[in-house]
Amino acid sequence: MKRSAVAAAALALTVSLPTAAHATTQPAVPAAAVVPQVLPIGVAVSALPLAMEDRTGYQRTSFRHWNAGDIPADGCNTRQEVLLAEAIVYPEIGPGCTLTGGTWWSYYDEREVTPAGALDIDHMVPLAEAWDSGASAWTAVRREAYANDQGQPASLVAVTARSNRSKADQDPAEWLPPAPDALCRYGAEWTATKLRWGLAVDEAEKDRLLDIAAGCGGTDVEFTPVP
């Protein structure tokens, strides 16, 4: 697709996407309340709003996690629910949602992982990056919803602790998964998370995402905007 066509499609899309400013007055609602969208990765990246980042006032405690999860009655918190959802060999569940056994696939570094304690649950767009990109203006309730978001599988992902801690709070201009085959998926999922929550990107971040998109023809970005 020519750059002009991508830009035109992106401009039309941004009219319907949530913005960081709009998000300050809108409560988080179930993702099912709005229609899922599927876009070619180049169109999706071009639709991301561009803004300077500002980390002033950031504290990790501004994003409450892990809470009681999507099913409070199951006795599992968000971390444990994500592990159960992503297990390729299901673990045994003990008292207090203690997980024994089980196997997971960490796609960042293409490693099979067991036990559950060897995994981190990564926020696809880290909490500090979300703060920089618009979440600083959100309510505490919305930030909690973001930090525990299971409404879109890309938002939270089980990966090796080593890869998650290597990533830390860096954006794609600063860090990418070490596995070459993970690149297109990662670029699509990062973009999907930012579009879902109406978060902005800075210039270096957007340029890197466009570079990724250029090499990932045929990759779609799937997301459901949160009003």
Structural class label: alpha+beta
User: Regions with pLDDT < 50 over 5+ consecutive residues?
Assistant: 1-32
Strand order of the largest sheet: 1-8
User: What is the terminal-to-terminal distance?
Assistant: 29 Å
Number of strands: 8
Order of helices and strands: HHEHHEEEEEHHEHHHE
Number of helices: 9
Instruction: Please summarize the sheet with the most strands.
Output: 2 strands, antiparallel
Based on CA atoms alone, the radius of gyration comes out at 17 Å
* Coarse shape: globular
* Chain-averaged pLDDT: 89
Helical coverage, percent range: 25-40%
Strand coverage percent: 5-15%
Characterization of the model:
- The chain is an alpha+beta fold and 227 residues long.
- Helices cover 35% and strands 13% of the residues.
- It has nine helices and eight strands.
- The chain has a two-stranded antiparallel ribbon. The protein has a two-stranded antiparallel ribbon with strand order 2-3. Strands 4-5 form a two-stranded antiparallel ribbon.
- Strand 4 (104-106) and strand 5 (111-113) form a beta hairpin.
- The longest helix is centred in the last third of the chain and has 15 residues, at 183-197.
- It is globular.
